[in-house]
Amino acid sequence: MCIRDSDSPILTTVSQKRAGSGSMRVRLSSATAIRIKGERFVHGFLSHRFSSPRMEAGTLTLAARARQFSSFVLLIGTITGSDSFEASHGVVVRNKDEFLIPLELMTIPSAQEFKDQVASLSPQQQGFCQSFREMQLESTLFGVAVIQIQPQLEKLLNLAPNSLAKEVELNHNLMELLITYQVPPELLAFQQVGDAEVGAKDPGRVRQVKKNAQELFELFNRIKVRELQDQQKQAEYVRAKEAARLRAIRDREEQERTRPRREFQERIQEIEHA
Fold first, then answer.
1. DSSP notation for the chain
2. Which of 121, 155, 205, 218 gets the highest tally of CB atoms within 10 A of its CB?
3. Taking a C-beta distance cutoff of 8 angstroms, is the pair 197, 166 a contact?
4. pLDDT grade, residue 6 (50/70/90)?
């Protein structure tokens, strides 16, 4: 993942905080918030803009790409405090997905420039401009959070760390069930059965998750087959109804075509009987 200008990544100065030095609170909804613990990087980028039309601001692009068989959640938002991150957009990037997200930039005047520009305004207008500037300066620090899916998936399914590292097919199936079919994680997670204690790194945990995923896939496949059969029956019914309608039209046309002949024959028979 990188931020680039045209086709080249931009160069930044960076300050790094190691994992364990704190956590960031991310609010996902009005009732849901999570804590992100991991490495944190603060990047600084100095953008020069001159009078040349080719140096227009707002040409930066956030590029995110996932490797084959890997996946992560990308959150984009602003840093609202020393330990809080407000996400405004999010996307799941997996299996060679590539997203190019244009970033709209806006230059905020410095304090002296702002003071010079509002000096000629009335006190009421200056107060309004000051409030608007404070709103602009609030939460202007752009933030990006990358959440690896596999460790969270292992924790969600009651598996030991790195249990899914070599389970490529199982990873794909789990992502398909959770994202495409919106399956509750409780139907996939390992659950203790009986009194025998199963160790955290016991392979039986992964086998049970595989079995749960396989059973759900078989269930969805049966549902797909049933739906396909219903669609085929519906299509056959529509075709039969259309064929019956066409036969009725042909019969009416045949009757209309042969009616003069029948009427003529009936008239001849009436004359003969008379």
1. -EEEETTEEPP-EEEEE-TTS-EEEEE-SSS-EEEEES-EEEEE------SSGGG-S--EEEEEE--TT-EEEEEEEEEEETTEEEEEEEEEEETT-EEEEE----PPPPHHHHHHHHTTS-HHHHHHHHHHHHHHHTT--EEEEEEEHHHHHHHHTT--TTTTTT-HHHHHHHHIIIIIS---GGGTS----SSSPPPTT-HHHHHHHHHHHHHHHHHHHHHHHHHHHHHHHHHHHHHHHHHHHHHHHHHHHHHHHHHHHHHHHHHHHHHHH-
2. 205
3. no
4. low
Please name which of 42, 43, 2 lies closest in space to residue 22, comparing C-alpha atoms.
42
In the block, tokens 């549902």 appear at 223
**Percent of the chain surpassing pLDDT 70:** 94
Whole-prediction pTM: 0.73
pLDDT tens sequence across 206-243: 999 999 999 999 999 999 999 999 999 999 999 999 99
Better-predicted residue by pLDDT, 177 or 31: 177
157: tokens are 């399914």
Contact 189, 205 (CB under 8 A): no
* DSSP notation for 230-264: HHHHHHHHHHHHHHHHHHHHHHHHHHHHHHHHHHH
pLDDT of 54: 46
